[in-house]
C-alpha cells in the first residue's frame, strides 16, 4: 500500500505490506505520478513493509535515482537490517540518506558517503 502526503515542499510516502516484482511497477508509477514540481525532497517511510525482494529494492533505487535527476533529494527510513543490507548492495546509500528502523539503529549519512568517496 502507498500513502502520500505533502508539507512544506517535502513529500512523505508511507509504504506498507509486501513489495515484489509483481507489484513494484505500479508502485513506481504511483510515486512518480504524484510528485509535483514544488516537491524538493521525498521521505520514504518503510517501517511497515513486511516483505521485499531484490527486484523491488532495485526498483526503489531506480525511483530514487529518477528523483535525483529532477533535483529531488530522498531519504529512506525504517528498513530492517536485512533490507538495509540489500539496499547497500544495490547502492541506495550512495544516492539517498538511508536509515534502518527497529531496535538496532543503523544509519548511513552523507559524511560517511563522502569519506568513502575520498572527500574527507
Protein described:
Strand 3, helix 2 and strand 4 form a beta-alpha-beta unit. The chain contains four helices and six strands; from the N terminus they run ββαβαβαββα. A six-stranded mixed sheet has the order 1-2-3-4-5-6. The protein has 120 residues and is α/β, with parallel strands linked by helices.
What brief labels describe this structure?
120 residues, alpha/beta, six-stranded mixed beta sheet, 4 helices, 6 strands, 34% strand, globular, disordered C terminus
Mean pLDDT, to the nearest integer, reads 85
**SSE pattern, N- to C-terminal:** EEHEHEHEEH
Gyration radius, rounded: 14 Å
Q: How much strand?
A: 25-35%
General shape = globular
Name the helicity range.
Answer: 25-40%
Output the strand order for the largest sheet.
1-2-3-4-5-6
Low-confidence stretches: 103-120
**DSSP, total strands:** 6
How far apart the termini lie comes to 40 Å
Number of helical runs? 4
Main pleated sheet:
6 strands, mixed
Structural class: alpha/beta
Note the topology.
Elements: E1 2-7, E2 10-19, H1 24-34, E3 41-52, H2 54-69, E4 73-79, H3 81-89, E5 97-100, E6 107-108, H4 110-117
Parallel strand pairs: 2-3, 3-4, 4-5
Antiparallel strand pairs: 1-2, 5-6
Helix pairs in contact: 1-2
Précis, in short:
This protein is an alpha/beta fold.
